[in-house]
User: Which sequence fits this backbone?
DNA sequence: AAAACTTCTGGGAGCGCTCCCAGATTCCGC
DNA sequence: GCGGAATCTGGGAGCGCTCCCAGAAGTTTT
């Protein structure tokens, strides 16, 4: 294996200076077509690939973007949501010479790395509670976009699904089905996504009984416990809006164990459209890949310093009717 | 926001040369304790963080490792297996100054990037068929470890779960239950994991009827189709070993639709221990996080040029008894 | 007590690019 | 034609580190 060629070799072969090669490589203006072509040929002939480290060093740019997933959320990576977002993020990056660096934040240790100039921007997803990471990064001048509305508010732009409206739609569907005792299994109260979906349910339920609320932690296990508690409090309930498909799975299991038929005895609507279930789950779909693309697009715009961008973006959701409700 | 401090500032503050600071930073020998401490203090006081680009450039090291997921597998990222592996990989990297760069390979475009010297090594997971990427990287002298046995064989070391033995255990369990007509929903034939689990089933079934095989593509959808086909071919089947939990979900759905009770009429065993199901699935568990840690450990050893390493590692699996069989 | 090491430290030459500056060439309009 | 602008190109100074080399200080050997 011979040494990889450098920019000077390309320059020599093309019969130009390395400045010119650099211009061609970076698509700078003021290069004649003849020269440009000569350089292109030389690049291909030598199989030249620019050295990222040198580019970063000389160009004061890292050519890398961090995708931060908070590790306290542990299994969150297994979440189809996160996976889909990753795909979208990656797709939006295609064609750029930018690397995606994956980080799992143990609170504290990530901040200094990120503000240390190793990345040009950061995408922070699945935040819990009032994680100070966002403001830390923002205050250090690093372009940041949050995936999901930050509970703490603040100046950081974010992209989120319209959880509120999705929940309203789901609940209204349950109402239109003629259900009278509609419960909800809500998400944790320290995440905006949990809160927003609960608010949507409350909104749609206005004028009705809204005490049938149980909280789960976005796991099947949590959904099961919540369902059990709900069933104890109100054995006659005939519908439940579950704030996440994965929790719906647990709920379905409990409903089944208690001899309730779905949807005959109890109608169930989930959220996410992320898991296959028996019976097929009526749910609120969010386009996670689009979510990811939008996130990345927004961050790139932020990095390039575009003006007049909307502070945040809400992506629409849609109700998918299947057999559980 | 003031400029980040450089190594010279640290050196000045500590009253030593930047060579010495570099030594301390890299844990090189021949530095007196006094000096070392002085440098440490200066680093903390200035909040100094070394510039990765400069280190890479000067040190002929990228300080980055690529995690390559083949994109043709599309939704593979959503796979709890991949997610778990990522967590493990990340955990093993903790404490090192090495970045994890996530790449999704569209066949072809990743190779040149990786061999271009941007990373010190690569982890390639969820390969399909005879993807030439592995040998391409290996031939270029890049340290590589595969997650999952490469179907094509070859000299690349790999880490895998003992899929064969896991399948044998699962099938034997079905036999010990007294089941007489045992089918299997196998994975795709272009992935070693699919093949190995099928071989395990065949091995355990030796002396019995082994024609009840249907293939799925590791999706719930695929599992459902396979189950339907199986039921058509042998309505009397009383057990099925499904090569992936996610396919078992689809199978369960079909079984349910056809009025078969699980486990009374048909016993079901899955593989992965990755999804919650109704009824709770008896399955073969693999410790995915350990898988990831092992992968990374192996790659780091490879990069450091350790000798006498086993070419590959097989991780044990265990049967988890729940109610589906 | 001198020689021969060993341990510690500083100096400085790059690593392979980008980007600023200045010079050369071409293109206009009057 | 000629001045001035626009277009094109090369030279070279860094970017912030690592690592080699050589010298200073301290230790052991003969």
Assistant:
């Amino acid at each position: 294996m011979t040494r990889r060629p450098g920019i000077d070799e390309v320059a020599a072969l093309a019969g130009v200076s390395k400045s010119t090669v650099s211009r061609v490589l970076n698509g700078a203006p003021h290069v004649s077509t003849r020269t440009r072509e000569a350089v292109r040929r030389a690049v291909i002939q030598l199989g030249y690939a620019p050295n990222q480290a040198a580019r970063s060093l000389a160009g004061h740019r890292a050519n890398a973007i961090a995708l931060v997933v908070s590790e306290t959320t542990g299994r969150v990576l297994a979440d189809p949501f996160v996976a889909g977002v990753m795909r979208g993020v990656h797709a939006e990056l295609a064609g750029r010479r930018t690397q995606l660096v994956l980080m799992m934040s143990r609170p504290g240790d990530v901040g200094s790395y990120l503000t240390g100039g190793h990345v040009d921007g950061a995408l922070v997803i699945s935040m819990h509670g009032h994680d100070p990471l966002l403001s830390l990064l923002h205050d250090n001048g690093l372009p940041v976009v949050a995936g999901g509305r930050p509970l703490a508010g603040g100046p950081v732009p974010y992209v989120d699904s319209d959880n509120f409206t999705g929940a309203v739609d789901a609940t209204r569907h349950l109402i239109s089905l003629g259900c009278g005792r509609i419960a909800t299994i809500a998400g944790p109260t320290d995440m905006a996504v949990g809160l927003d979906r609960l608010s949507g349910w409350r909104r749609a339920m206005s004028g009705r009984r809204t005490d049938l609320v149980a909280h789960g932690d976005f796991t099947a296990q949590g959904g099961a416990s919540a369902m059990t508690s709900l069933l104890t409090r109100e054995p006659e309930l005939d519908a439940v809006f579950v704030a996440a498909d994965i929790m719906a799975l647990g709920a379905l299991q409990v409903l089944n164990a208690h001899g309730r038929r779905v949807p005959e005895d109890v109608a169930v609507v989930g959220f996410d459209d992320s898991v296959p279930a028996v019976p097929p789950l009526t749910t609120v779909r969010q386009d996670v890949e689009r979510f990811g693309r939008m996130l990345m697009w927004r961050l790139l715009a932020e990095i390039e310093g575009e003006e007049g961008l909307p502070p945040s973006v809400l992506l629409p959701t849609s109700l998918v009717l299947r057999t559980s409700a």
Summary: Chain B touches chain A through 52 residues (CB under 8 Å). Chain B has a mean pLDDT of 88. Residues 6-8, 18-19, 22, 25-26, 50-61 of chain B lie near DNA strand D (CB under 10 Å from a C1').
